[in-house]
Amino acid sequence: MAIRRSNRWSNKFWALVLGCVVAAGLSTVQTAAQAEQVRPAARAVDFTGAWQFALVNTTGEDAPQPGEHDPLWRDTRLPHDWSIGLDPVESAHTNAGTGFLPGGLGWYRKTFTLPRSMAGKKVSIEFDGVYMDSEVYLNGVLLGRHPYGYTGFAYDLAAHTDGKPNVLAVKVRNQVPSSRWYSGSGIYRDVRLVVTDRTRFTRHGVQVTTPDLENTVKSGFATMRVATTAVADSSAQAEIVSTVKDPRGRVVGRGTTRAELGTTPSTAATDIRITKPLLWSVEQPNLYTVDSEIRVRGKVVDTVSTRTGIRYFAFDPNNGFSLNGVEMKLKGVNLHHDLGALGAAVSSDAIVRQLRIMKSMGVNAVRTSHNPPSPQFIKACEEMGVLLQVEAFDTWRSPKVKYDYGRFFDANSSADLSEMVHAAKNSPSVVMWSIGNEIPDSSAAAGPPIARRLIDVVRAIDTTRPIVMGSDRYRRVPAIGSPQDQILQMLDGLGLNYNNASSIDELHTRYPTKFFFEAESSSSTSTRGYYQDPEQLNTGENYTPGRRNTSSYDNNLETWTYSGEYGLKKDRDRKWFAGQFLWTGIDYIGEPTPYDVFPVKSSFFGAVDTAGFPKDFYHLFRSQWSNEPMVHLLPMDWTRHKPGEPVSVWAYSNADTVELYLDGKSLGERKFDTKTTVSGSRYLETTEATGDDKTVTTGPYPGSYTSPNGSAGKLHLTWSVPFQPGRLVAVAKRGGVEVARDEVRTAGEPHALRLTPDRRITKADGKSLTFVTAEVVDRAGVVVPDADDLISFQVCGGTLAGLDNGRQESAENYQAPARTAFNGKALAMVRSGQSSVITVTARAPGLRTANTVVVAAGGRPGRAPVTAGPQPAPAPAPTADASYSGARTTIPAAMLDGNASTYWSNYYLKRATGLLPAVSRAHATDWVSLPVPGGAVSSVQASFLTDAAHALPASIAVSYWNGEKFVPVRDAKIEWGSAVSITFAPVRTDRLRLDLTSSAPGTTHGFLGISQATVGS
């Protein structure tokens, strides 16, 4: 690439930067442990500050706590995930499933003092989540062990209250693999100190329900039943008063009950009438607050505030899901708990951003896959109107990976399940409890007794919500009396994972009293901005290093998966089907299907990448789930094409007509037909064979998914457009009137960086996050779709919390100060400090520098530190490159290793899925490039494979890199044979490229392969 000229910063900006003190790196430094003086002003005290952390090893080998003055100790603040700050590596203690990020053994410690005024108080410590195998010590005494990484727990503290320092120490051990996805490591959720009187509410001691709401609301009121559980160290006659406040904070009801309290917890309930209740819904998430007090002899001794909502819902086996009497589909997504570059460390701002992106796609529900969520996640769903299926476990007794929860299931599952239900029982968002996902034990004799125990645990706490599980073991109707049959009879409903249409119809017929939904749907994989084989319903993977991407045409599928369009149609056509949870809403770290090779470290399943940038898949679901007029063009890249090359252009839209223009010239309209399901719902779809369901053998469209109304079609519109640079515009129309438009433009050379923060005002609280999108743009401001510049970030007045670009194949550290752009974009997560102004600066060699300013409310003016650090060098280019490699064993480096048995090949065989046949179809063209060690070259020799799958190319064109682009050599002469020799006029270069044309494109025998290649002078 040509060297680019950097522009000068303005004098004003230099003055701002020079007014800051530079502090290198993102990590904190070692300091002596300081005792925090705790003076509780409330029942719960935030206990996330002033911790120290020591990473003892990354193997998980057991080890004692480091000594007090050991240099391993570093200052930190919770929540904290130590794994996300490590480099991804290949080792005996990492794997692709967890993103090649190490776990290990870590110790945390916090020194604190309590005032004498706390003598006689009940003091406890509460953890929302520690991953995993935690041990907690106070002043060297073990308080307890908690193995599960996803549930909260608490310990009573016999702490000093005489001014002596107390030392709280937490040992955390994450032996990888402990999960099938990236779990994170450490105290990754909040910690609080709870201080109460000896007469007090128990933990999770308030439960709010609204019995018979469906009927009472018709009469204009709701009955809010508040059940409180309390305890006293000595017997006490108590009055318990619960006060209800509406969403505006006005008192709308109060109830009182009396209880005789003692050392055994006692529960008392009171009913409170709420007139004209404001219902919680996905459109209007109205929230009420219940303040409960314990009064002894007229004195308030404990107070707990509980947030809840008033709503009713139903899962009907024949009519699907309804909320407050309104039928609706669950338009859901699965979300793992990692937050991209933040890892597992909980952040309310990051969670809210994720949910906003999901809601903009039309999402109304989330399945917490496959573990209980954080309190912050539940709170955000309540406030934003998102329904929740809360899930307990990914495994029961039989483990899926070596160190997972199966080791602890028998001893701990009842307690962990109880904790999950208690933690979320008052949330109006929660509409289902799930006792597990794809459980191997569920098809064994041990399964039904385990399921019975888990169901009983949930129902002992909450009888207001159905109990389900997610399963991949019901793709056929189970035999009567089998373990699967027994378990389904116990459950209220079942979440199906990747069932085809005929199988769900058969289950509905066999089990007419159970409700069904798709707990995991689709799993079509894609990479933002990458496109391959639009004419194929399923296509292979590229294994060339640096190009391990999957197609965004909704056409890269694994054997168990199906396209997003298929899942949408299957769900749409069945009123009784409650809805679906797409796998997944957002890419997550780990499980990099279809690749299992370093450095591919995140999933490809998401509609949105790990940085939060939407892929085309997002727009497919938005076109079906959102009522806001929209149209989206793909490919999103109108730059990387050859002149005249036919480009398959798709449009996703919820309008009936889309017209396409290139530089103002119409390329024609395409229209959806308006159709009606057998239950009377209208929808838009083309009418044509789709070839997407080989199980359909009858009817008008054999081999295609066919709706119960007899119709088949696609959810997108298509044009074939010969490429020419310019401006491609899609105009969506309803009734001939424009309602939305989208455009893509041809980009020029990279010229500048552009920064766009997601907010202009934040809080100067040391934890609030601003998400800054960085884009590489040309002189006209068009994002350059193939830009991969290394961008360095500097923050003044805050800190850099992490960097991401959404690229799945990357060995970059998430918390380094620099990140390459991926397809033109990168993301900086910026944490506020105590300053009133935060300035973010982005630089890349040869590009115009960009900066942006965010105001931090409540901050102080003046100088603030800059977070910066050494700029990492870009990854070295591979010794050989290729446009496409069909298998991990046939990458281009194999041409150069001197071993005749290894080779580069573009051959692939995509295995059959449940709906689609196997595919092996030679590309029309591909290219390989070779290094030129000496600089001067005039010939190249290549030994081509010829066998049942491979043939000699029909033609070969040679070009060389001139420092800016590949240009053709002169006077090329080819001597054909299995070993092809090409001579040409001498050139000086460091790389040659061979563009190869298949002799039989689209067949199973037209693939290309080279076993050895050399260049000569």
Automatic annotation (TrEMBL):
Keyword terms of this UniProt record: Glycosidase, Hydrolase, Signal
Keyword field contains Signal: yes
Domain Glycoside hydrolase family residue range list: 753-851
Segment forming the signal sequence: 1-35
Domain annotation Glycoside hydrolase family 2 immunoglobulin-like beta-sandwich: ranges: 209-311
GO MF term set: hydrolase activity, hydrolyzing O-glycosyl compounds
Glycoside hydrolase family 2 catalytic domain: residues covered: 320-479
Family stated for the protein in its record: Belongs to the glycosyl hydrolase 2 family.
UniProt name for this protein: Glycoside hydrolase family 2 protein
Organism expressing this protein natively: Lentzea alba
Taxonomic lineage: Bacteria, Bacillati, Actinomycetota, Actinomycetes, Pseudonocardiales
